[in-house]
Each structure stands twice: as C-alpha cells, then as structure tokens.
Design brief:
alpha+beta, Double Stranded RNA Binding Domain, 2 helices, elongated
Length: 99
C-alpha cells in the first residue's frame, strides 16, 4: 500500500504527518483492498475559521473513493475525512462480496 501525504502551499508538519500515517495504517489494516492513498492538506482563507482542508483519495480495484472536509484543526479534518472514506469502503466491500 502506497500512502502519499502532501502539504499544498503550507509548511510541512512532522507531527501531522505521523498522526495521519497512524490513522491510515489502521484503515489499511482493516481494508486490504486498498492500493494507494493520497492525502492533501490545504489552507483556505475562511472568515468562519474552518479553512483547514483535508482531502483523501483512496484507490481500490476498479475505482477510487474521495472525501474532503474543512475544519478548525487538521487533525479533526483527517478524522472526519477518514470516517467518510471508511463508510464508502464498507459499501464497496459489501458490493464486492455480493458478486
């Protein structure tokens, strides 16, 4: 499984990278069908303060699943985006098991 973590126009954070890798490891241990995962961290000027964006694209056999969220903190954005990815992977796994 290949995991790429990219910081788009923001400084890299070793703590955030480690946190994300730990979360991704748990996900890939649960879903062995994952080929690769791309994670993008972005910062958007938002007057509401929820401008910390996490986008996750997960490649599985036959398709890709994608989730993006904007929160006050990157860690919270990772948690929510991974929950969305997990929900989509459960649906895909159920469809694959049915065939």
């Amino acid at each position: 499984m290949l995991a790429q973590i990219q910081f788009v126009k923001i400084p890299t954070s070793e703590a955030l990278t480690t946190y994300t890798q730990n979360k991704l490891k748990k996900l890939t241990d649960r879903f062995e069908m994952i080929n690769s995962i791309d994670v993008y961290f972005k910062l958007e000027n938002d007057p509401g303060g929820t401008g910390k964006i996490c986008e996750i694209e997960c490649s599985i056999p036959g398709t890709k699943v994608f989730a993006a969220t904007s929160q006050h903190y990157y860690e919270h954005a990772v948690k929510i985006a991974l929950a969305e990815i997990e929900k989509q992977l459960k649906k895909r796994k159920a469809v694959m098991m049915a065939h």
